[in-house]
Fold this protein.
Amino acid sequence: MSTAVAPGRVRGVLLVVEHFWTWYRHNWRATAVSSVLQPVLFLVAFGVGFGSLVAGRPGVAAATGGAPYLVWLAPALLAVSAVQSGAFESSYPVFSGFTWQRTYHAMTAGPISPAQVAVAHVAWVAIKLTLTGTVFVVVAVLVGGVTGPGILGALVAAVVTGTAVTALVTAYAATLRSDQGFNVLFRLIVIPITLFSGTFFPVEQLPAVVRPVAWISPLWHGTELGRAAALDRWQLLPALGHLAYLVALLLLGLVLSARFFARRLAL
């Protein structure tokens, strides 16, 4: 029987985060395309390219509240990037930790608990989202998609949104015995919410029957919160409502992740 003393809850989480950071420090190039280059290309393609085609049209100006399309789009794409990266980082990598590489089994063979591993994974993805989101903000500044310091608030909103999605997908991944379940996740959830959460056009332009579906999307709440910050259009009660919804999803995801990790690693 091991005589090692179990680390405190926070220290155990930090030890696992250190593991992820050590790997990332040596292998960051492997994820640079999906986490950094892809959202930047979206920004240039839709914000600069498509935006130049619709610039000055009355309908677009009304939809964006008078803001240039690129400026209106940038905080939404920042949130999309965080959601997509969070979903991917918590799908196949989590499944691998249980099934392919079995790193979670190795971690919990010592004094670190399954709950600490689950929380550490979510915490690490939040750190990574902050790093990649910062790069996105820098590029947005360079191409003219930022008009003020409010973009930093949009970055915080994007990280909170992406972390909430991360926690929920981590819990889902911990229940899967086959990676085929991720096809459903990306095709029927991630892609649709990317298209219909107010990223490229206001949700109000959708048919009335479809809007409630968009309103339950965490990406819509993150986009609204980020745009309010970036465009300096704060309204206290709506902002608190969006934030409360995202925090509730994050806490739910953390609780479920800890429970499912403990159940899976106890087998």
Q: What stands out?
A: The chain is about 75% helix and 0% strand.
